[in-house]
Amino acid sequence: MYFEDISFDAIITDKNGVALEADCRIAEPAASGLPASISIEIPLIDKKHKMLRNPCTLRGTNGGIEIEIKDLWYRSIQLDVTPRKHARGALHINHAGHLLVKRSYWQSDLARFRFLLSPVRFFKKHSNAAMVNYSATPNMAVELFKLQTAEFGEIRFIKFWSVQHVEQNGGAAEIRASYAAEILCDKTTELTVEQLVEKMKAVLIPLSILTRQAITLHGWVWERREGIETMWFVPLAPNLAPDMAEDFVKDVCDPEEFDEYAQAFVEKFLKASPHTREAITLISVALAPHVKRSTAENFSALFRALEQVIALERLTKNERQKLRETDKEVIALLSDLKSRVEVISSANAANVAARIDGFANSIHGSGPSFNVRFEKFLSAYPELEFWMSDLWPLRGTKQLPGLKQIRDSLAHGFRQEYSLHTIAVAQWHFARLLERVAFIVLGSEVPCGLQFGSYLLEREQWYDRSKWETVRKTARRKN
Fold first, then answer.
1. Is residue 86's pLDDT more than 70?
2. Contact 316, 323 (CB under 8 A)
3. pLDDT class for 84, splitting at 50, 70, 90?
4. What is the DSSP track for 189-239?
5. What's the CA gap between 246 and 149, in Å, rounded?
6. pLDDT band of 185, cuts 50, 70, 90
7. In 3D, which of 214, 192, 195, 196 has the Cα closest to residue 204?
8. Nearest-10 Cα torsion for 242, 246, 247, 249
9. Taking Cα atoms as reference points, which of 413, 412, 406 lies closest to residue 475?
10. d(Cα 124, Cα 144) in Å, to the nearest integer?
11. How does residue 359 score in pLDDT terms, banded at 50, 70 and 90?
């Protein structure tokens, strides 16, 4: 990795083609996950500038370096008229979408492409990353694990670092570590950079489930004979996804077995149908969200992902026509209400009765219940019954709520019916269920950290049946 402060002259062009000269200074991120620094000043002159309209593009050069910032949005800009020769007005930036730096003077005989990844807990805690001897590793990089895919060939997931000098007490230095997925370009040169990025994002979806934290793509570095190009996505505010795993929920599988499970899981995902990949992607986002959410929001996201998964099994015409369990009662009550409204001596009685009748008719076309759709899914994956037997039940009753009853209360605004502790314990079980579902749907072996009664699960306090059943029995608050 190559980092430096770059000062250069540039041209800012707005969406309407209006251009202004600018004096810029950029410091690239010292490591993936850290923000860049971008300073832009506009020379003030003795006549008024035209106002720039967002979004803008900035381009500039300095010797063998080319810099481009796309999707640049600013909050305010100082464009006062002044007779001063060297006056400058600051451009206050709201957002920068892409920062591209090209260096033609740094050439590499090894054509390789590095996808810069977020520093998730799994990467930082990996034994190869945590135990590295920096002074004894002159190439300043260590391999964490590797995968094989049809598009990329071998993908090496690595930790690499640079030494940053710090002005402190007469001079010091610190190591800034980054994480990346590295491929050789000789087998992928027919793909555009955009295609490479999209294919790597697909690889990160199942890996995010395995690491229990969303692995986000922060940019890329392309080294080749023509020079080196570095791209940073959203450089001022890189997305650092929250770690959804509690301190006592860390491993989906044994560290020694991670490579094997990762290879199989990624391979199955990449070969799956588009509908299945879409469903697993929704599971990945629900299990490892890219932004921080409340426990109740996470719970609802898990249920939406489950609904997407069970929709993979198409219903027959007869199954689609089945009413929900309570629909007949609702229709009967609405019919009775309509009859009573019709006998009222009111100018609006007929209109009100027609609206009630319309609502009753709409129930007929509302589709089958969750239970009908889930039973169809179970018929395709009967082994799921076993994988659900040690967890908080999906379906329950008012007195002993299942995950669905809790979700229904949250969806209908009755959040107060359950305590935060109840929702947290149920959400933990829901997450374990969806992790198992992801492996089952893809036809991949369920890893030991999710196996029924495995030692990795047994160490979790909320897996203890006596404890979570007690929580379930006292789940509903007394009104």
1. no
2. no
3. low
4. TTS-HHHHHHHHHHHHHHHHHHHTS---EEEEEEEETTEEEEEEESTTS--
5. 31
6. confident
7. 214
8. -120
9. 406
10. 10
11. low
Given CA atoms 432, 433, 436, 441 in this order, what sign does their dihedral have? negative
> Domain residues of the chain, as ranges?
5-103, 112-225, 276-317+369-473, 323-364
Q: Is the pLDDT of residue 335 over 80?
A: no
For 299, the 3-state DSSP assignment is helix
pLDDT bucket at 386, cuts 50 / 70 / 90: very high
Contact residues for 294 (Cβ-Cβ < 8 A; gap 6+): none
- Return all residues near 237 (Cβ < 8 A) that are at least 6 apart: 35, 95
| Three-state SS at 386 | helix
How far apart are the C-alpha atoms of 309 and 307, rounded to whole Å? Answer: 5
Q: Which two tokens stand for residue 227?
A: 């020079």
Amino acid at 322: K
How far apart (Å, rounded) are the C-alpha atoms in residues 110 and 408? 56
How many CA atoms lie less than 13 Å away from 413 in the CB half-sphere? Answer: 0
- The 3-state DSSP class for residue 13 equals strand
Using CA atoms, how far apart are residues 444 and 428, in angstroms rounded to an integer?
22
Strand bridging mode 112-117 / 172-184: antiparallel
Q: Which positions ≥6 away from 14 have C-beta within 8 Å? A: 52, 53, 54, 55, 56
Average pLDDT over all residues of the chain:
85
pLDDT at 267: 97
Mean pLDDT along residues 42-70: 85
218 alpha-carbon distance from chain centroid: 12
Closest CA to 157 of 168, 149, 165: 149
**Helix residue ranges, H only, 240-326:** 258-271, 274-287, 295-310, 317-320
- Tell me the torsion sign for CA atoms 445, 447, 448, 452: negative
- Give the H/E segment covering residue 102: strand 88-103
